[in-house]
Amino acid sequence: MADVRVKICGLTRPEDVDAVAEAGASYAGLVFFPKSPRHVTVAAARDLALRAPVGLAKVGLVVNPSDALLDEIIAQVPLDMIQLHGTEPPERVAEVRARYGLPVMKAVGVAEAADLDKLDVYQRVADQILVDAKPPKGADLPGGNGLAFDWRLIAGRRWSRPWMLAGGLTPQNVARAVAMTGVAQVDVSSGVERAPGVKEAALIRGFVSAAKVAEAVPRL
Ligand SMILES: O=C(O)c1ccccc1N[C@@H]1O[C@H](COP(=O)(O)O)[C@@H](O)[C@H]1O
C-alpha cells in the first residue's frame, strides 16, 4: 500500500513551506479567511505558493467565497486545488469547479451519524471530500479548531472520490486515526503549531513520519 498522503494546512511563513516540503507532505494549505489566525493575504499567498517545490500541491482554503475573491486568488496564486470549507451547497461546488477548472475539495463537518449523508451528496460534485470535525456551536472558525470527532463513525466507510480526514489530528494520534478509519490522506493545522497560526517544524516532521508509518498498521 502507498504512503499515507499528508496535507499541512494554514502555512503563513516561507519557513513553513520549506518544513512541509522537507518533511515529505503532499499538500500545503493556504487559508484565505480573515477571522483565522492562519489567514494570509493574496500577495503573501502568492509568495508562499511560488516557493513550493514541484510535487507539493498548493491548496487554497476559502469559506463561502464570492466569485470576486476567487477571481483575485486564482489570478494571483498558482494553486493546484480549491478547498471549500463553508456552507457551500452542492450547486456552488459544481459552479466553482466549472468556473476555475481546478479540482475542488469540499469539507463536510461530522459530529454524528446523521452528518454522513452529506458526504454522499458532495461526493457527486467534488473531486475530493474532506471529512472534518463539525465546529462547536458559535465557533468563529468552521475548521481549524483542533477538535476530533468519533472516528468509529466512519470506520470502514468508503466513498467514490478520494477523501481526507481532518479535525484534531496530532503527531500522537494520527497513526490511530489511520488504523481506525483506513484513510489514505490526512489533513492537520493546529496539531502542528506551537501557538495559533504559528507552525512548528519539528511537529510537522513528527506528524508526517507518524502518518507514513501508519500505513503499515493493519486496518481494523
Ligand atoms: O485552519 C483554519 O484556520 C481554518 C479556518 C477556516 C476553515 C478551516 C480551517 N482549517 C481546516 O480545518 C481542518 C482541521 O483543523 P485542525 O487540524 O483541527 O486544527 C484543517 O485541516 C484545515 O483544513
UniProtKB/TrEMBL annotation:
Amino-acid biosynthesis is among the record's keywords: yes
The enzyme's E.C. designation: 5.3.1.24
InterPro entries: Aldolase_TIM (IPR013785), PRAI_dom (IPR001240), RibuloseP-bd_barrel (IPR011060), TrpF_fam (IPR044643)
Keywords: Amino-acid biosynthesis, Aromatic amino acid biosynthesis, Isomerase, Tryptophan biosynthesis
Pathway linked to the protein: Amino-acid biosynthesis; L-tryptophan biosynthesis; L-tryptophan from chorismate: step 3/5
Family: Belongs to the TrpF family.
GO BP, one annotated term: L-tryptophan biosynthetic process
Catalytic activity reported: N-(5-phospho-beta-D-ribosyl)anthranilate = 1-(2-carboxyphenylamino)-1-deoxy-D-ribulose 5-phosphate
Name of protein: N-(5'-phosphoribosyl)anthranilate isomerase
Domain of life, source organism: Bacteria
UniProt-listed PANTHER family: N-(5'-PHOSPHORIBOSYL)ANTHRANILATE ISOMERASE (PTHR42894)
CDD domains reported for this sequence: PRAI
Annotated Pfam families: PRAI (PF00697)
Record-annotated N-(5'phosphoribosyl) anthranilate isomerase (PRAI) domain positions: 6-209
SUPFAM superfamilies: Ribulose-phoshate binding barrel
Gene3D superfamilies associated with the record: Aldolase class I
